[in-house]
Amino acid sequence: MTPAPRYDQIGTSYARFRRPDPRIAEQVSRALGGARTVLNVGAGAGSYEPSGCRVVAVEPSEVMLAQRSATAAPAIRAVAEALPFPGGSFDAALAILTVHHWSDPALGFRELRRVAGRIVILTTAAARINELWLTAKYFPGSARVRRPDIQPDRIAAALGGSVTVETVPVPRPRDCSDGFGEAYWGRPEAYLDPAVRAGMSACSLLSPAEVDDGVARLRADLESGRWDARHGHLRRLAEYDTGHRLVIAA
Fold first, then answer.
1. Which end of the chain has fewer CB atoms < 10 Å from its terminal CB, N or C?
2. Shortest CA distance to 180 belongs to which of 33, 74, 48?
3. β-bridge partners, 121
């Protein structure tokens, strides 16, 4: 089995900063379509695992597995590309913000199709996320490392069958309980906190120099008022399209 060095390094703060947001969780639950058995692939600490059904989790990182609560679903250390289950074992398979870490997404998608009848994947659309202020103005290197093979249209084509793609609006940062990379779209001060950044896989894909440069420029723009002059209207919005998409295949 392929190890998970990135999450063994950055996953230590997930239980603190990456708690599921109830509005996103509700949309994910609807997408599962009443499935009674669900496989959560790249499950991490257990965010967005549905209640009221039997869930089995797959996660390659020991650090992430150690953060699962005693009441979380049973978990197996494995990878998406080699799921240790017979075909058709589950009603649905779930993959939340994980496919960008898979070594072979195409093989992972085939494995999801093999073991489950319904697939729900939360990913991001590069065309949208790259135009957000966070990438466009402060961390442009993030656009470079976003993989074309995990864009929503490519995932839909790989899964085949009846596929829909839904926009996942991200609630305003003071309310959103999940601290993924774009979650603080209207509270930029959060990105100055190294503990917050430590729970964002996007930061781990950049060099330390790129991160330090972006943080320094953001701090300067906040102190001078330039950020608010350009983007201050975002602070007043209730939700925002940050490029997050649910790909749902039946």
1. N
2. 48
3. 95, 247
Domain interval for residue 109: 5-249
> Helices 152-159 and 105-115 sit at what angle, rounded to 10 degrees?
50
Instruction: Please name the residue that has the structure tokens 């959060």.
Output: 190
Distance CA 122, CA 98 (A): 8
Domain count along the chain: 1
What pairing do the DSSP bridges indicate for beta strands 54-58 and 90-96?
Answer: unpaired
Structure tokens at 248: 């749902």
Residue owning tokens 């600490």: 45
Of residues 20, 27, 2, the one with CA closest to residue 108: 2
Cα 102 versus chain centre, distance: 12
Quickly tell me which residue has 């489950």 as its tokens: 116
Contact 168, 24 (CB under 8 A): yes
Torsional sign, CA 233, 22, 43, 241: negative
Residues 6 or more apart from 30 whose CB is under 8 A from it?
Answer: none
CB neighbour list of residue 5: distance below 8 Å, 6 or more residues apart:
none
- In single-letter form, the type of residue at position 69 comes to S
Return the residue matching tokens 């300067």: 220
User: pTM for the whole thing?
Assistant: 0.90
Q: Which helix (H) or strand (E) holds 52?
A: none
Q: Report helix, strand or coil for 112.
A: helix
- CB hemisphere CA count around 8 (13 angstroms): 8
Structure tokens at 67: 């953060």
CATH of the domain at 67: 3.40.50.150
